[in-house]
Structure formats: structure tokens, C-alpha cells
Amino acid sequence: MTRSTWLTLASLVLLAAFLAVAERYGNEYQVRLLHNTAVFITLAVSYHLINGVCGQLHLGPNAFITLGAYTAALLTLTPAEKAANFLLTPLIWPVSEVSLPLAPALVAGGLVAAAFGVLTGFPVFRVRGDYLAIATLGFGEVVRVVANNLQGLTNGPLGLKGLHPLGSLGWSWGVAVITVLVVHRLKNSSFGRAMQAIREDETAARAMGVDTFRHLMLAYVLSAFFFGVGGGLLAHLITTISPGLFSFFLTFQLLIIIVVGGLGSTTGAVLSAIFFTLAGEWLRVVEEPRQLFGLMVPGIPGLRMVIFSLLLLMVILFFRRGLLGRREFTWAAATAWLTGRFRTGAG
């Protein structure tokens, strides 16, 4: 194995040790924050694959997250718990009788989302640019409206309650690490380079013999799979889901994360997801009433997103390609940087 592989394995061992310590000695809020960070890393890196690597403006991640969340939730609930949820309209058979552990339920959520990715990919990739954005945005709204009205499968606006909470941090971070590794390996493969060629100039890529539809479909379906798995994790993290949870607002959050991190950089998507998850918690204070210089200042709901939007505006103005652009973290660059700092310090 190369030195980079050893360093990557050592980093994963350190991450696992940190998570084990955090889970043992951290409080409930800190553990939940770590779960939340991992889920948003999964969703942001999945979104980065189609928007950043392939350069296609896709505005429908919330549709696939919805499909994955409802599939995983329905599969992990026991028949008795389903009966307690579906009081007005009984859940359809055989879903009402099926109950699975979390791992196969998450995979099923990903597969259902991927299947819808295949079905929608054919019409969606007949158009490009703004039309593609509108088509995927419409798909996201269709799924949300259907989930709101399909009472016998989703319980409509009442949603699903009492989902089994995520246990170990290994669930959420394991999925996040797998997602990052898969997207990173794909990006650096011949398929990934063809996807980046499509991003730069689709006509030129096609002229060079790249099957643009096949490569875009691969990215679209793979990202849909990870959206579905991430949706399942999100559902079991929140433990209560309803169609209103999966509005375009969720897609907007992911769009901010990958644009700020840098379109085309997996490292940027990961770092930005960590920053936004932590900042989102820290900025809750601006939405809560508080005393300032003896005066009671009322909280303003939604002010966090205003601050995030201003941050996005500043990034667009001063960093046209995001904070990291298309740069990626590599062990060679990190070693060279550390060596340079050491020499500078020694001199």
C-alpha cells in the first residue's frame, strides 16, 4: 500500500477513536450534533457529485431524501407501531406487516431513491441548464405533494412518529465515510474525468467520444442512492417525519453548502457541511429572545437563514468558485505544507 493509503487508514482509526470517546463521554446534545454533521456530509457530498463534478444544476435532492426517509421509516417500524401511526387510514399491505433492522432499511431507502432516479433520469436529461433545474425542482415538489396526499402509505400531513432513534455514531459516520470515499474514487476514475469533461464543455466531450447521457445517469442515480440512505438516517435522527420537512428549503440548504465549499471540491463540500451544521446550532441564539443592554430583544425566526444567505452572497462576490474552488485535500500537499512550515519555523 502507498503512504497515502496508510495515512488515510490512520485518519479513519483516529476518527473512530474520537467518535467512541465522544459517544461515551459526550452529552446527548453533542452526540446528536455529531450525528447531524455526518448526515449533512452524506447529503452534501451526494449533491456535489451531480452539481459540482458533472456541472448539472439539479434542484430535486429533497425528492430523493423524502423517498429514502419514508422507505426506511416504514420498514423499521413494527406492525404495532405502524397501526398506532395509521389511525385514520390503514397502511397498505404488505408494508403494514414488514419490519426490518436499520441497515437493510437504509439500503432499501437508497435503492428506492435510485429506482426513481432511473425513472426520472430519462426525461430529465433531455434538457439542460435552466430547464433541467426547473424539471428537477418540479419533481421535488411532486414527491412532496404526493407524500402529503398518499394517506395509505405516508399517513399524509400527520407524518410518521416514534421512529427508532439512531444508535451508535458508527451508523451516521460510517455512511458519511463510505459516501466520501465512493465519490472521491469515482471522481478520480476515468468515469469521473469524463464527468468533469462534460462539466467543462459537453459538446466537446461528446465530440471526443464521451457518452454524456450514460455518465450523467450514473452520477444522477448514484447521488439519488446516497440521498435515499441519507434521508433514512435523517428520519431516524429526527424520529418524526412529515412531508413539510422535505420542502425546497432542504435543497436550498444543501445548495448553499456546496456553493460555499466550492463547486467541484469534495473536500469543500465536507468542510462546508461541518461548518454549516455547527454554525446553524451556534446561530440559534439570534432567533431566541434575549436581554441586550437591559432591553428585551425579541428573537427573529428564520434569521439564521438570512445570515447564511448573506454569507453565500459574500462568497459569490469574493470567491466566485467557493472557498476551496476545485482544490482537494491530498496527503502530498499536506505533507509539503507541513514541511515548509517546519523549515520556515526552523529558519
Could you please describe the fold and organization of this structure?
With 347 residues, this protein is mainly alpha-helical. The chain contains 15 helices and two strands. It has helices at 3-25, 28-53, 61-76, 79-85, 102-124, 130-149, 151-154, 169-187, 190-200, 202-207, 212-238, 248-261, 266-282, 303-318, 331-346; strands at 290-292, 295-297. Strands 1-2 form a two-stranded antiparallel sheet. The two termini are 34 Å apart. The mean pLDDT is 88.
Gist of the model:
By secondary structure, the chain is mainly alpha-helical. It is built from 15 helices and two strands.
Characteristic terms for this protein:
mainly alpha; 347 residues; globular; 2 strands
- Count the DSSP helices: 15
Strand order of the largest sheet: 1-2
Q: Order of SSEs, N→C?
A: HHHHHHHHHHHHHEEHH
Using the alpha-carbon principal axes, give the shape: globular
Class from helix and strand fractions:
mainly alpha
Strand content: under 5%
Average per-residue pLDDT, rounded, comes to 88
Distance between the first and last residues' Cα: 34 Å
User: What composes the largest sheet?
Assistant: 2 strands, antiparallel
Q: Work out the number of β strands.
A: 2
Our Rg estimate from Cα atoms comes to: 21 Å
Estimate percent helicity: over 70%
Contiguous runs where pLDDT drops below 50 for at least 5 residues = none
What order do the helices and strands come in, and which of them pair?
Blueprint: H1 3-25, H2 28-53, H3 61-76, H4 79-85, H5 102-124, H6 130-149, H7 151-154, H8 169-187, H9 190-200, H10 202-207, H11 212-238, H12 248-261, H13 266-282, E1 290-292, E2 295-297, H14 303-318, H15 331-346
Antiparallel strand pairs: 1-2
Helix pairs in contact: 2-8, 2-11, 2-12, 2-13, 3-5, 3-6, 3-11, 5-11, 8-11, 9-11, 12-13
